[in-house]
Specification:
Blueprint (H helix, E strand, L loop, with lengths): L1 E11 L2 E12 L3 E5 L6 H8 L7 E6 L2 E2 L4 H7 L1 E4 L11 H10 L6 H6 L2 H20 L15 H13 L5 E5 L7 H15 L4 E5 L3 H7 L2 E6 L2 E6 L1 H4 L3 H8 L1 H4 L2
Helix pairs in contact: 3-5, 3-6, 5-6
This protein binds adenosine-5'-triphosphate (ATP).
Length: about 250
């Protein structure tokens, strides 16, 4: 599946946050989105996840318009994590992932109340899948623990497990390494690569350009609402326009 922004512009009052931005996010690829403060990254992210309706242009998932409604976008296959952790702190890690799984299950209220065999079977399958996602992110043994008692890095992995449980075609990660130490960052890199290898399109916004250039298959650079340049990391990080506009010569040449 490919998520596309087609000539997207977004204005807030008189302020142009995005100006004619086009990008394509295919499966089997980790796409990075970087840019200086105020470049429009979060605004683009919000358009791609259905939180904002662009002022003009279109967001398409495999050629079909994506609803400007986060719940519908999620059901359509676009999942996200947030800059700030948004778990249910008192619930177990497993139950947090089950919440993600339930976005996919079509059991009505009546079925839940009656607790019939169909419902029980579907719940058992959901629990199995939730356990599998916990294993996948490296939290297999922690399923019973309240989310709040997990280490910070583990809470971020739990958020990713919850997003994966909804069977996304595209996973959008907003600053997934914010506040992490070097080891946790390396672990998250490996996890994101494993997600890509499942065929899921991954989009990462990060301020840590070193992380983006070493992780991503393709990088887009936004500057003042416009897409300045995109390409493989090796090309983008040495592009003089990027060095001048965003990174500063010394940073980018590292
Ligand atoms: N809801 C809003 N209302 C008004 N202006 C907004 C709104 N959201 C963003 N903006 C403005 O749009 C521009 C782009 O902001 P955005 O947050 O998308 O940039 P960013 O690249 O994510 O920045 P940062 O790296 O600092 O998070 C900024 O000038 C910002 O002030």
């Amino acid at each position: 599946m490919t998520l596309t922004a087609e000539r997207v512009s977004m204005t807030f009052g008189g302020l142009v946050a995005l100006d004619d931005v086009t990008l394509a996010v295919p499966g089997n690829r980790i796409t990075g989105l970087i840019g200086p403060n105020g470049a429009g990254k979060t605004t683009l992210f919000n358009c791609l996840t259905g939180l904002y309706a662009p002022t003009s242009g279109r967001i398409l998932l495999d050629g079909r318009p994506l609803a400007a409604d986060p719940a519908q976008a999620m059901r359509g296959g676009v999942a996200r994590t947030f800059q700030n952790i948004r778990l249910f702190p008192g619930m177990s890690a497993l139950d947090n992932v089950l919440v993600g799984r339930h976005t996919r299950i079509k059991q009505g209220l009546l079925a839940a109340l009656l607790h019939g065999p169909g419902f029980r079977k579907s719940e058992a399958a959901a629990t199995e899948r939730a356990r599998a996602e916990l294993e996948f992110v490296g939290l297999g043994p922690e399923g019973h623990m309240p989310a709040r008692s997990l280490a910070y890095g583990d809470q971020r992995r739990l958020e990713i497990a919850r997003a994966l449980a909804g069977d996304p075609a595209v996973l959008m990660l907003d600053e997934p390494t914010a506040g992490m130490n070097g080891t946790e960052t390396a672990d998250i890199s490996a996890l994101i690569t494993a997600i890509r290898d499942r065929g899921i399109a991954v989009v990462v916004i990060e301020h840590d350009t070193k992380f983006i250039f070493s992780l991503c298959d393709h990088v887009y650079v936004l500057v003042r609402g416009r897409m300045l340049v995109d390409g493989p990391p090796a090309t983008v990080r040495t592009d003089p326009r990027v060095i001048e506009a965003y990174l500063g010569a010394t940073e980018c040449s590292k």
